């Protein structure tokens, strides 16, 4: 009887095409990173899976979506088809890979003992684009990509659904969230590109220049909001609440006698869910956390940093 001496010997028995097919059942990030370290055979199979197999469209997005002239250059029909194929395959994975790309770029340009991003990264990330200028690469490219795959505001529910993957990644990164409002930035870039900028606005707090993005609170209190339809597909109520708090920075400034509005948001966003048991459980979770904050000292900052942060 054949005796396999190591875990990698099996790849020498299977035809390369079959190894490639096996890898297509793994998550994209595994094929893109970890499995390449197993052996040369597996590394070759992973490369083929990314360039011509199941994950080819997502690999294509990472290599072609970020362009220097995103504001001026319209996408070709071939590019648009590839982008939409990747989005149909796994929109959450696409967004997650864009976040990872952003973070890897940031870390590669970090300088100084505190890891302050260099001017090179700042130009690549946003340049003067967010102030009406040009020169940025990442943000206008992402805005262009999202508008191609979701060309109308009717895609808000699907985009919210896809953002669960990003939220899980940020939570896994732990306190500090290397980019705390990345999900909201995706929404902001997309809505501005579509001309729906009233949905996500800039909230000025404290003094001029001290501002943050926020989703319109009326949208979060609207039972017909497509945000709610997307959240129905999220697995964990705790993730949903953290996401909602990041969507509206003003929530973190509410006093304890205003916290009941979080309950109102939870009820509104889950009112039209088909799974009523899941809706009731989500509302009950929010109510329990708000009650915990009522019995604690401080304002909602305590809720964000302690009650919701430790799950």
Helix content: 55-70%
Run of helices and strands: HHHHHHHEEHHHHEEHHHHHH
Over all CA atoms, what is the radius of gyration? 22 Å
- Uncertain parts: 1-8, 306-311
Mean pLDDT: 77
| CA-based shape | globular
Describe this structure in words.
- With 311 residues, this protein is mainly alpha-helical.
- It has 3 domains: 1-54, no CATH class; 64-198, no CATH class; 214-311, no CATH class.
- The chain is 58% helix and 5% strand.
- It is built from 17 helices and 4 strands.
- The chain has helices at 10-13, 16-23, 28-32, 40-52, 56-64, 77-89, 91-108, 119-125, 138-149, 156-173, 182-194, 217-220, 226-231, 237-247, 260-270, 276-294, 300-307; strands at residues 110-111, 116-117, 200-204, 211-215.
- The strands form 2 sheets. It has a two-stranded antiparallel ribbon. Strands 3-4 form a two-stranded antiparallel ribbon.
- Helix 2 packs across helix 4 (40-52), helix 5 (56-64) crosses helix 6 (77-89) and helix 14 (237-247) packs across helix 16.
- The longest helix has 19 residues, at 276-294.
- It is globular and about 65 Å long.
- The N and C termini lie far apart (50 Å).
Which descriptors apply to this entry?
311 residues, mainly alpha, two-stranded antiparallel sheet, disordered C terminus
């Amino acid at each position: 009887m054949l005796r396999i001496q190591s875990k990698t010997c099996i790849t020498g028995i299977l035809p390369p095409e079959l190894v490639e097919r096996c890898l297509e059942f793994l998550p994209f990030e595994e094929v893109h990173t970890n499995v390449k370290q197993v052996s040369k055979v597996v590394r070759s199979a992973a490369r083929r899976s990314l360039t011509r197999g199941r994950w080819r469209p997502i690999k294509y997005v990472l290599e072609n979506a970020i362009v220097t002239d995103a504001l001026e250059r319209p996408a070709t029909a071939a590019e648009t088809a590839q982008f939409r194929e990747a989005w149909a395959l796994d929109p959450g994975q696409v967004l997650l890979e864009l976040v990872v790309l952003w973070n890897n770029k940031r870390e590669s340009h970090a300088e100084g003992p505190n890891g302050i991003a260099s001017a090179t990264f700042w130009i690549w990330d946003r340049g003067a684009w967010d102030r009406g200028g040009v020169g940025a690469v990442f943000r206008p490219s992402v805005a262009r990509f999202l508008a191609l795959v979701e060309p109308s505001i009717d895609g808000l529910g699907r985009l919210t659904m896809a953002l669960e993957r990003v939220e899980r990644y940020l939570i896994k990164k732990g306190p500090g969230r290397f980019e705390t409002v990345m999900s909201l930035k995706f929404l902001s870039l997309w809505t501005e590109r579509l001309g729906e900028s009233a949905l996500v606005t800039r909230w000025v707090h404290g003094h001029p220049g001290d501002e943050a993005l926020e989703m319109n609170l009326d949208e979060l209190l609207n039972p017909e909001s497509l945000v709610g339809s997307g959240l129905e597909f999220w697995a964990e109520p705790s993730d949903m609440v953290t996401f909602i708090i990041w969507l509206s920075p003003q929530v973190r400034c509410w006093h304890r006698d205003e916290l009941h509005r979080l309950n109102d948001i939870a009820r509104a966003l889950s009112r039209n869910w088909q799974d009523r048991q899941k809706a009731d459980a989500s509302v009950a979770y929010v109510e329990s956390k708000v009650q915990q904050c009522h019995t604690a000292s401080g304002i909602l900052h305590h809720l964000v940093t302690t009650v919701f942060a430790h799950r």
